[in-house]
Description:
With 162 residues, this protein is an alpha+beta fold. It is 34% helix and 26% strand.
Amino acid sequence: MAMKSRVALHAGHVIRLRKKFIESIGKRKKVPSGTLIVEVGTLIAEVGTFIVEVGTLIVELGNGLIAQWLNFMKDNGLIVSPSQFTINCSHAETNAINAVAKMAKSKNHTNHNQNKKAHRNGIKKAATHKYRSQKGLDAKFLRNQRFAKKGTQKALAAAIKK
């Protein structure tokens, strides 16, 4: 049994579809590389195209066909914003999709839904530790290290003895 991949567009997202394609959706016809199941909200007429406000758009595809289907959508001018897709598929398919649909790339690989201050300051990297942990080291050695840092007379005397 072939694995199924799923591409979902949720309520409020907008896709641009040609009139011919809308008619094929209405008849529940098969589209290249998979079946399109659609719940259409409002249709707004434009010159030569339709804008569809999607309630739910789910495309179920056989394994490895998702990029081919997105290519078909892109070539026929059916996708307005490919970044609207939420994709749950294999690593190979994800790479193929990224080649087809250029997603938005942001500076420092941030999340887009950040407040103004977070964007201004950038994304902070985790603090790198300057010194290695001294946990478990010899107590006498650590004591001598502390004295050496302070530059006390006791540390000088200990250094001269050795």
